[in-house]
Amino acid sequence: MPAGRSQSFPWFHSSRQKPRRWPLALRFIKGSVHAAIVGPLIFYTLFTVLIVFLDDHLNISLGVPSNVTPSLSIVVGLLLVFRNSSSYERFWGGRQDVGHIVSSVRNLSRYFLLCGPNDSDEDRQDTEKVVKVLIGMLYAMRSSLREDWGVPHPDEDPDYNSLLPPGVQGHEKWGVALPLELSFFIEKYIRKGNKRGNFQAPQASMLTSQLNAIVDAYGHMETIMLTPIPVCYQIHMKQVLSLYCLFLPFSIVDDWKWVSVPIVALIAFTLYGIESIGQEIENPFGLDRNDIKMDSIIQDARQEVLVLLECWKQGKEDHFI
């Protein structure tokens, strides 16, 4: 942590605070895809051992012309490039959506606190409630994308539960996502401000556009989660990788003999590792180390907005001007 920073600071949870103990090149467990490729790696290594053993002990050569391998290499390379680029595009698109949602929550919170209907105690309570609902939408979206349905019990997730409107039950068992339901509370508040004259028609329209941006970004994240890579592509990808790794020992056994074993193992490790990375990041909303750190981002946004809300409740909003 840089000097001068204590307790908390912007991006406290979502920024890296601890130096890495080991270089990434020496990491084989946490954050890696090695566990997913152990099976194929062992299989192709043993298969190559068998081919080299038979080639050494039989009177016939199992080697084949090596000029076929470059053609297969081009095909495998193109498939892997497309696979990983499309997966990273989904990852980056999901991260951008999270950023857009947080930005909209910031904008709406600021506007509600400074320009909302706050003439009476009841109005101020409504403003506080709607600002908390904005943060609650972040939690609701996170839970929905992880298929964690329903309103949490206060003992299970008090941080999340305390942000929801009193008595909200949720209608997810009827097919209505909780983030969409919470957006009704916010839209109702905007309409109230418009009727009371706090939000003029252009301002109310702008606020509704910000709310629509949240719902649109959430819909895009749903699309990423619910649209896997087409199965026909996955099948062909697996088949081409298998064909290449099975053919490779025959094409190098005459030249490399027992050295073929580590060569094939290294190539299988590389190719299947790249393919597994694509699988790992194509749905970035889970709890894996390689997923978007949604919990940390939400914690930072919550801290940010609640501090502003507390200052507003104490009449100290001028300190931010």
UniProtKB/TrEMBL annotation:
InterPro entries: YneE/VCCN1/2-like. GO terms for molecular function: chloride channel activity. It comes from the Eukaryota. Its main location: membrane. Pfam families: Bestrophin_2 (PF25539). The keyword Ion transport applies. The chain crosses the membrane at residues 28-54, 60-82. GO terms for cellular component: membrane. It is found in: Membrane. It is a multi-pass membrane protein. The keyword Transmembrane applies. Keywords: Ion transport, Membrane, Transmembrane, Transmembrane helix, Transport. This is Uncharacterized protein.
